[in-house]
C-alpha cells in the first residue's frame, strides 16, 4: 500500500526497467518462441504487458476526471466471467497481427504515458483509494513481477 504517488511511480519505473531490455533484441530474436517462457516470444511478452498497461492508462484517464473507473469494473467483470486464459488469448491474437515496429513503438510509449497521466490524477482517486491503487498495481508492478521469469528466460535464450 502506497501513501504517496511519487513512491508508487518510482517503484513502477524501477520494476519496468528490466523489460526495456527487450527493445535491444533484433526482430528475429523477438519473434523466436522460448519454451521456458511458456512458449512465448519476446514479441508476445511485449504485447501482453503493454496491453495491460493500456488498461491501466484507460483507468488513469477516467480517474483524472471521475471518482471511479467504469473501465476497471468492466475489465474485472470480463476477467471473472470469461477467465484469464480467454482474455489473454484475445490479447495475444490482437498483438500478433500488429507489425513488430508498432509493437516496439507502443512498448516504448505506453509506460511513460501512463506514468505521466498518473501525475495529473488526484491522489485521492488512486493512492488514497485502495481499490484503484490495487487495480493500477496489478496492471503494472504486480504484472511485471508475474512475468519476470518469462523475461529472464527470453533474454537467456538470446544469449545461448
Outline the fold blueprint.
Elements: H1 5-16, H2 27-31, H3 42-65, H4 70-82, H5 84-96, H6 100-118, H7 123-126, H8 130-139, H9 141-146, H10 148-159
Structure in words:
The chain is mostly helical and 160 residues long. The chain contains 10 helices and no strands. The chain is globular, with a radius of gyration of 16 Å.
The parts where pLDDT drops under 50 for at least 5 residues are: none
Tell me the radius of gyration.
16 Å
Instruction: Work out the helix count.
Output: 10
In total, the number of strands is: 0
Shape: globular
* Major sheet summary line: none
- Distance separating the two termini: 39 Å
Q: Could you give the order of the helices and strands? A: HHHHHHHHHH
Structural class, by secondary structure, is: mainly alpha
* Share of residues in helices: over 70%
| Strand portion | under 5%
Q: What are the key terms here?
A:
globular; mainly alpha; 74% helix
Amino acid at each position: 500500500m502506497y501513501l504517496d504517488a511519487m513512491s508508487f511511480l518510482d517503484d513502477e519505473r524501477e520494476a519496468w526497467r528490466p523489460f526495456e531490455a527487450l527493445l535491444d533484441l533484433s526482430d528475429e530474436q523477438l519473434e523466436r518462441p522460448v519454451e521456458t517462457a511458456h512458449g512465448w516470444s519476446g514479441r508476445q511478452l511485449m504485447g501482453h504487458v503493454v496491453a495491460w498497461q493500456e488498461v491501466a492508462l484507460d483507468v488513469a484517464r477516467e480517474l483524472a476526471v471521475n471518482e471511479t473507473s467504469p473501465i476497471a469494473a468492466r475489465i474485472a467483470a470480463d476477467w471473472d466471467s470469461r477467465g484469464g486464459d480467454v482474455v489473454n488469448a484475445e490479447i495475444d491474437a490482437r498483438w500478433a497481427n500488429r507489425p513488430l515496429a508498432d509493437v516496439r513503438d507502443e512498448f516504448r510509449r505506453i509506460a511513460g504515458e501512463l506514468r505521466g497521466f498518473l501525475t495529473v490524477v488526484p491522489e485521492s482517486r488512486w493512492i488514497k483509494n485502495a481499490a484503484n491503487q490495487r487495480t493500477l498495481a496489478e496492471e503494472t508492478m504486480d504484472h511485471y513481477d508475474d512475468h519476470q521469469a518469462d523475461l529472464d528466460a527470453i533474454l537467456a535464450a538470446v544469449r545461448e
